[in-house]
Amino acid sequence: MTSNTMFRLFPGFLVMVSWCAESHAQVQWQRTEQEIEHDVQVFHASKVLGLPTAQMLRKGNFEFEISHRFVPPVKDGYAALFGFDGPARMRLGVSYAVADDWVMTVGRSSIDANTDLTIKYRLSQTEMSGMPFVSALQIGAAWNPVETFRRDHKDSVIVRGKGHSRHFQIFAQLMIDFQPMGQLAVGVVPSFLYNRDIGAEDVENTFVLGTHLQLFLNRHWSIIGEYSPLLKEKSTWRNPAGLGMELETGAHIFEMFITNQVRINPAQFLAGAEYSFDGDNLRIGFMITRIL
């Protein structure tokens, strides 16, 4: 079966999830109106694909996230269950709203045990000529508690221990969300990453012009897309991209998509993808978030 076949499999999978969710939504998953009500709302999720949105939590709320990126490509077909046989890269994250406009998040990736702490602050929310507009700023730091190895000009092996300063990274992202028409939400996320490659000889920085969009089909279903070009010349890394669907059922949000990016945490995602976004390199990804 081809990649096009996988596109046809996504809706069937999500319909099954939706049927299960509908049967239990009122009992277990229904979020109160107060929890989801905001003065201005563009995206419903705090994150769409690999990029954050300006969406905030209510003060005192927690949000739990689990994300997977499967390493085998879709083109491997049924022998690898179109990539679902794994292995997979994984992220666990917990967010807490210190205030309505402040959210702190701790996350961990299975790649290099990358652990990050981020703080998100909502800058503004308004309507411009009837168009919803929300902006927020996110800053964070990541630590990679691993040893790295490289060779110097004399071909000697240089070892950097787990606590080496080069294993720390810093990033900042400005989220600008707006809704130019009806059911279409657009996000522009200019981002900066300090020390993109912890194993490189010298510090490298990266600028990324993150972009994503969401087309709401109804109160539960939407189509999501992402393209994040790296603003760095002669980079061997590829621009992260993805396309899929989102299902919202009460306090749960499910996303399932194809992507060329298997690196999940912000400091990894912003460094770029290892693969091109084409039929030979597409991977399956999913994310589930839950308001607690």
Quick structural overview:
With 292 residues, the protein is mostly beta strands. It is built from three helices and 16 strands.
Structure description:
With 292 residues, the protein is mainly beta. The protein has one domain (3-282): monomeric porin ompg (Porin), CATH 2.40.160.40. The protein contains three helices and 16 strands. It has helices at residues 3-29, 33-36, 266-269; strands at residues 47-48, 51-52, 62-70, 88-99, 102-109, 115-128, 131-143, 148-151, 157-160, 168-181, 184-194, 205-216, 221-227, 241-249, 252-259, 283-291. The chain has a twelve-stranded antiparallel barrel with strand order 3-4-5-6-7-10-11-12-13-14-15-16. Strands 1-2 form a two-stranded antiparallel sheet. The longest helix has 27 residues, at 3-29. It is globular and about 65 Å long. The termini are far apart.
List keywords for this structure.
two-stranded antiparallel ribbon, mainly beta, Porin
Distance between the ends: 40 Å
CATH top level is Mainly Beta
Structural class estimated from helices and strands: mainly beta
Q: Could you tell me the radius of gyration in angstroms? A: 19 Å
Shape by Cα distribution: globular
Q: What value does the average pLDDT take?
A: 85
The count of helical stretches stands at 3
Strand order across the largest sheet: 3-4-5-6-7-10-11-12-13-14-15-16
Fourth CATH level, the homologous superfamily: monomeric porin ompg
What's the β-strand tally? 16
Instruction: Quickly give the CATH architecture.
Output: Beta Barrel
Element-by-element helix/strand order: HHEEEEEEEEEEEEEEEHE
Largest sheet: 12 strands, antiparallel, barrel
